[in-house]
Design goal:
Layout: H1 17-30, H2 43-50, H3 54-66, E1 70-73, E2 77-80, E3 89-95, H4 100-113, E4 117-123, H5 128-137, E5 144-147, H6 163-170, E6 177-181, E7 192-195, H7 198-208, H8 210-213, E8 218-222, H9 230-246, E9 249-253, E10 266-270, H10 273-285, E11 294-299, H11 303-308, E12 311-315, H12 317-329, E13 335-337, E14 340-343
Parallel strand pairs: 3-4, 3-5, 5-6, 6-7, 7-13, 8-9, 8-10, 10-11, 11-12
Antiparallel strand pairs: 1-2, 12-14
Protein name: GntR family transcriptional regulator
Domain HTH gntR-type: 15-83
Keywords: DNA-binding, Transcription, Transcription regulation
């Protein structure tokens, strides 16, 4: 035990005591106070020496074993697994579904964090159970958690989060939590939040596009019937508000099929890329010209839309990742609305 140095712990620290112990062990290994294959104090010995509970020490050792810093040898004790540790801060990046723009956030985030951070990427496919299991089993493995919280619910009310999920998210220290994209958790300014305001952004985006779309008579919003997300209601409300204000007709479609009737002077707002492809196929079959006969505005910028000349309303996903990295590195805790804009192209 005499080899240990700097093992003073703060009971009022935002960092849990077991993590303070784990970090202190790592620091001692890095400084050469502990060497490879060196035996660690038993949990009982550590507990008595530093007046901390056995459970807390056990939890700290468990974290270090999960990180392969310590190794347990049956009947012999716990040993230092390596004396040449390059300790990187570990970040779990949880997204609801894979997409080009979610990857853009992730890539910008990891690039700006730099080489001292290890960011692991997990997809929970909008499933609350999978999300809960991924987060719960990794609570003691990672230093930071970046979460894009969107869930596909069976409820017609499209409730955002179950109480169980919300409680688990709130159990993470605010210093270790970054929430991206969704503004519905109601966490205040206690952690880092970079969000889209789906209703306000959509309404303002359509108003910014009014000079191009005022020639159309009816706005048709294409929403994916297979998904039940809260932000769909917000986008729908914004479209209704815009149409009422500017005296447009308004309609919602859950899919584009061979039975879909498309008339001239229709303006389509499309949320999902699959529906956009089907719509473009249908317009091609009917020999309707984009931007003249029929208008199309898609959500979320991608290279595919840029190449095809599709007008887009989109948040700046690269900026979202960069802002999250910057705030994390500088320990800035606040709620920030991400930049959103209308990108004018030939399709409307």
């Amino acid at each position: 035990m005499n080899k240990f140095m700097n093992l003073s712990f703060e009971n009022d620290s935002v960092l849990p005591l077991y993590m303070q112990i784990a970090n202190a062990v790592v620091n001692n290994i890095q400084k050469g106070n502990l060497n490879i294959h060196e035996k660690m104090p038993s949990i009982n010995t550590f507990s008595k020496k530093y007046s901390v509970s056995r459970d807390t020490v056990e939890k700290a050792y468990k974290v270090l074993k999960q990180r392969k810093i310590l190794v347990a040898k049956k009947g012999k004790g716990t040993f230092v697994n390596s004396s040449r540790i390059i300790v990187k801060t570990k970040v779990l990046f949880l997204i609801n579904k894979p997409s080009q723009y979610k990857l853009e956030v992730y890539n910008a985030f990891t690039k700006d964090l730099g080489e001292d951070y290890l960011v692991n990427f997990e997809v929970y496919h909008c499933d609350e159970v999978l999300f809960f299991n991924l987060l719960e089993q990794n609570l003691h493995t990672y230093d930071y958690f970046v979460i894009m919280p969107h869930f596909n619910t069976s409820s017609d009310e499209r409730q955002n989060f179950s109480e169980t999920v919300l409680k688990l998210i709130k159990s993470i220290s605010s210093d270790r939590l970054i929430i991206l994209d969704n503004n519905d958790l109601k966490l205040g300014n206690q952690c880092i939040e970079i969000f889209q305001d789906f209703e306000r952004d959509t309404f303002e985006g359509l108003n910014n596009a009014y000079f191009k779309i005022k020639k159309y008579q009816e706005l048709i919003l294409v929403t994916p019937k297979r998904f039940n997300y809260s932000y769909i209601d917000k986008i729908t409300n914004a479209c209704k508000k815009f149409c009422n204000y500017h005296e447009f007709g308004f309609k919602v479609l859950n899919e584009v099929s061979h039975n879909t009737i498309i008339g001239k002077e229709n303006l389509f707002i499309v949320l999902e890329d699959d529906d956009l492809v089907k719509l473009l196929d249908k317009l091609n079959q009917l020999k309707l010209e984009l931007g003249r006969d029929v208008g199309v505005i898609a959500f979320n910028e991608t290279p595919f839309k840029r190449l095809l000349g599709i007008s887009v309303m989109s948040t700046n996903f690269k900026l979202m990742g960069e802002t999250a990295a910057s705030m994390m590195l500088n320990r800035q805790k606040s709620k920030v609305k991400n930049k959103f804009c209308f990108i004018d192209r030939i399709s409307c």
